[in-house]
Design brief:
This protein folds into two domains: 79-261, Rossmann fold; 265-346. It is built from ten helices and eleven strands. The chain has helices spanning 33-49, 54-74, 96-110, 123-131, 165-174, 186-200, 219-232, 251-261, 285-294, 334-346; strands at residues 82-86, 114-117, 136-141, 159-162, 178-181, 209-212, 246-248, 265-271, 274-279, 305-307, 323-327. Helix 3 links the parallel strand 1 (82-86) and strand 2. The protein is globular, with a radius of gyration of 22 Å.
Length: 348
């Protein structure tokens, strides 16, 4: 049998004489870092075979370099939860919304979070003002306008400059444990719908999404009117999808929505056909039975089980102490999954 690695994303078939008993996914050891790097190298070599154009390769090379650089900057802060703040770069410092973003950034730091923004002016600057430079990370986009980093984060080692919006948005979502949206333009709407789409389709981990209006403001209220009266009423989204976000005019309520999301729930990952939720504390038996009854509609078979860590999670030994809630999720009821997490947080 060849010692070379199988191509990423393709099944690896053994000759009959080399056949081995199938190993359940939850009992498999994780793929090593060396194997993953080898897959990247093999994929890169195939561009020559494919006769890829210089333009395509330049784009891919730039994107890979940007992601490596950004991941390196964020890596030392992986142990801290982070909230990403989106909002208009054009919000003046005299605006009540600006001061609300300052207060929100300050409160999230007090709750133990770091604050990530696009590093420009307006709401992004306000979030960093509230957080202070030591608790701020910035992901700036290179544009012909509005591209200067705000004075809080400018020149700091936690500021990343990127060329592409798609690499920037990937970092926002990948590194965030919560999203806060303040009023803004096309960019804010794009970022808001991006995170909603990724969570609704299960292409991202689940995290709280809050939308803040200033007291008496109607930006997100009017936005919700379109969501409810057009998207929901015409069947483009389902009722549980409305559980994926929260609209408020209160900084206190926004902070509670985010911190409460992690009261018992910690994180999630798929292991084989099962979704595994990591919990700070095990559910009482009565709560587990109620969960089995109330959320059986999201199961693709079986039931909900509380377990310890699985062999496939061996590369995350720092999470070994957490309880696991394991089940076969139907992979489509993401609004209901958010409601399940809310239940888990209220149950302890």
């Amino acid at each position: 049998m060849s010692s070379s690695l199988p191509e990423a994303g393709r099944p690896f078939h053994l000759a009959h004489d080399d056949a081995v008993p199938a190993v359940p996914e939850e009992d498999k050891a994780p793929v090593s870092v060396e194997q993953l790097v080898q897959q990247i190298k093999e994929t890169a070599d195939k561009f020559i075979r494919d006769k890829a154009s210089r333009g395509d390769l330049k784009m891919l090379a730039t994107a890979l370099k940007e992601l490596r650089y950004a991941l390196k900057v964020f890596a030392p802060y992986r142990h801290r939860r982070k909230v990403t703040i989106f909002g208009s770069a054009r919000t003046p410092r005299t605006s009540p919304t600006y001061h609300q973003a300052v207060a929100f950034g300050r409160r999230m730091v007090e709750a133990g979070f770091m604050v990530v923004t696009g590093a420009a002016s307006g709401i992004m600057e306000a979030g960093h003002v509230g957080a202070g430079v030591e608790n701020s990370l910035g992901v700036n986009i290179l544009l012909p306008f509005e591209q200067e980093a705000n004075p809080v984060i400018a020149g700091d080692g936690k500021l990343v400059h990127l060329k592409y919006f798609f690499t920037r948005k990937l970092m926002f979502v990948k590194e965030s444990d919560a999203i806060a949206l303040f009023p803004g333009g096309f960019g804010t709407q794009d970022e808001g719908f991006e995170v909603l789409t990724l969570v609704q389709t299960g292409k991202s981990h689940m995290f709280p999404i809050v939308m803040l209006d200033e007291p008496g403001g109607d930006y997100w209220k009017r936005w919700f009117g379109f969501i409810h009266d057009v998207l929901l009423q015409r069947g483009y989204i389902s009722e549980p999808d409305l559980s994926l976000f929260k609209i408020t005019t209160s900084v206190d309520e926004a902070v509670e929505e985010i911190t409460g999301f992690y009261r018992n729930y910690h994180s999630m990952r798929y292991v084989g056909e099962r979704l595994v939720l990591r919990l700070q504390q095990p559910l009482p038996e009565t709560a587990l039975e109620q969960l089995r009854h109330d959320f059986q509609d999201i199961l693709a078979g079986g039931t909900f089980e509380q377990t310890g860590p699985l062999p496939a999670e061996a590369n995350e030994s720092h999470l070994a102490h957490l309880t696991r809630l394991r089940f076969r999720f139907d992979r489509k009821s993401l609004g209901r999954l958010r409601e399940l997490i809310d239940f888990v947080n209220r149950a302890v």
